[in-house]
Amino acid sequence: MNKEIVDDKTMKRTLTRITYEIIEKNKGNQNLVLIGIKTRGAYLAKRIKSRLYQLEDIDVPQFDLDVTNFRDDNPVEKQAENPQFKAVDVNGKHIVLVDDVLYTGRTIRAALDAIMSIGRPSKISLAVLVDRGHRELPIRADYVGKNIPTSHKETIKVSMAEIDDEDKIEILAN
Ligand SMILES: O=P(O)(O)OC[C@H]1O[C@H](OP(=O)(O)OP(=O)(O)O)[C@H](O)[C@@H]1O
Ligand SMILES: O=c1cc[nH]c(=O)[nH]1
């Protein structure tokens, strides 16, 4: 059974709030770089980029990151560099990592490794649309859209208009 818990209007407001929080916490916004984790984190980062521009006239570089090669469930022999991402200059930058759901934290751990493998940022912050709890690693988000307490049996499904035709967040009871 799917239960919609966030509709399109609420999701838009939530992203606007996260954007304002990023602006407030980073006065001057110098050296900010948005990195969105594929799949939906990349679309969220693009939206935050365009809101930063609309709200404050700030043009922040934004890149997509595929963490597959850095996952701890991906055999080491299959791990390879990601040539496109390797070209991103992260040195001395304040990276805002963006993802849709924060659960065990393993995806973020992989993303941190991917970023640190190509340079030395001055700071890395984390923005997520949903924090559903159940961390398996000492990772926390700096910007949280919605805290949604879940059981292990449930799944949070984020839909985004860019690939799913509409914006919504649902809880799926497995
Ligand atoms: O904190 P974790 O336990 O790592 O879970 C969170 C990750 O799981 C989902 O990605 P998924 O692997 O389903 O890929 P997708 O984004 O391409 O759907 C979600 O988009 C997060 O990236
Ligand atoms: O519930 C979950 C857990 C991980 N990733 C998701 O997208 N949803």
UniProtKB/TrEMBL annotation:
SUPFAM superfamilies: PRTase-like. GO terms for biological process: DNA-templated transcription termination. The keyword Transcription applies. Transmembrane segments: none annotated. Its EC number is 2.4.2.9. Keywords: Glycosyltransferase, RNA-binding, Transcription, Transcription regulation, Transcription termination, Transferase. A motif (PRPP-binding) lies at residues 95-107. Residues 3-154 form the Phosphoribosyltransferase domain. CDD domains: PRTases_typeI (cd06223). Homodimer and homohexamer; in equilibrium. Regulates transcriptional attenuation of the pyrimidine nucleotide (pyr) operon by binding in a uridine-dependent manner to specific sites on pyr mRNA. This disrupts an antiterminator hairpin in the RNA and favors formation of a downstream transcription terminator, leading to a reduced expression of downstream genes. Also displays a weak uracil phosphoribosyltransferase activity which is not physiologically significant. NCBIfam families: PRK05205.1-4 (NF003548), PRK05205.1-5 (NF003549). This is Bifunctional protein PyrR. It comes from Bombilactobacillus bombi.
